[in-house]
Amino acid sequence: MLTGIIEGIPAHVRLSTDDLRQALARRRLGAGRGARMGFEQDQVRITGGVVQGETIGSPVSIEIANTEWPKWSTVMSADPIDPEVLAGQARGEALTRPRPGHADLAGMQKYDFGEARPILERASARETAIRVALGEVARQYLRQGLGISLLSHVVAIGGIEAAPTSPSFENLAAIDADPVRCFDPQASARMQELITTTTDGGDTLGGVVEVLIWGVPPGLGSHIAAARRLDARLAAGLISIPAIKGVEIGDGFELAPSLGSAAHDPMVFDGGRIRRTTNRAGGIEGGMSNGEVIRLRIAMKPIPTVPQALASVDISTGGPAPAHHQRSDICAVPAAGVVAEAMAALVIAEAAIEKFGGDTLGDVRAAVQGYRVRLDAAGMAGSW
Ligand SMILES: Cc1cc2nc3c(=O)[nH]c(=O)nc-3n(C[C@H](O)[C@H](O)[C@H](O)COP(=O)(O)O)c2cc1C
User: Fold this and answer.
1) Does ligand 1 have an atom closer than 6 angstroms to the CB of 204?
2) Helix (H), strand (E) at residue 371
3) CATH of the domain at 160
């Protein structure tokens, strides 16, 4: 069972259990043959904060049950189970061969367990399902209150890269319809082929996902304190996703070797509005959104539960042993993109709530409109 709460969402945001079901179904897209995500089914329930399809201003709480749970209710019981009953459970077998690339060994060392079960159940990326559900609440608030939309798309799996074309929000349905959520059909076909041959070879894959966010007003986040910087908050949110090992904002690493004269986004007045001729910064300057499209990339390492089993040790014998193996995804890059959308939505929503406040959706819209009027009056309106 997963549970989660999101605070600060104003009253009158339309939200239904169906929205959450659809968001969770998107997390399973691209899971591929034999994937772990393909057989775990989510049973989602809104347990508070929403009445008759609208938020009421109190925290929104969500619960996701997993259809796999009943099989584990004895082994993972909160109350002690008779050791004889436990001994008869194949699922209760001690996992003493920690998997490299997982929380297994460090968790056993830290929490003093002789086996990995109490660690790996909590460390499992299964928890990202609740992030996706909470992210959907944030997404609805952003869309209905501020007109913000966002999507993710896979730009690389293994060594195969998509053509460098950027989708618009209208392309979301096409991206979701693609088996690996890639916007380039030719690259997608090669990625799918690579996943098949990698599955057959008993190995796993990682990749890169881009997140694009449209309609973000300038001034979310702040330069005044490290913890309030929007780039820092987005980076923390994204890198907190299991297996994400790199986050890039705008042109990121590509900017390092370029000259300053070619690395930034010149400003021009165009019909009384300030426009940028490029968006290398990816929509964030000085720790604040600058009104341009926010552009983020995340790098996912290959799934660490490798079917051909990595070399490890057996804590019970003190000798070498292949790492414990359990059913696992081969490539979770498309799913990680959906989780990244959720994390980005949660961070942007938190920053928007800070800036615009509001007890009701109407209050939020009025505050956003007031900000537009102020920027216009000051001659500082931009792309937003
Ligand atoms: C959506 C998603 C699905 C994942 N599925 C698996 C999986 O089936 N098997 C696995 O070994 N790792 C999977 N991972 C990655 C591990 O959870 C992660 O590598 C592990 O918890 C160690 O954390 P770290 O890689 O951040 O150090 C998945 C990650 C995500 C985001």
Assistant:
1) no
2) helix 361-377
3) 3.60.150.10
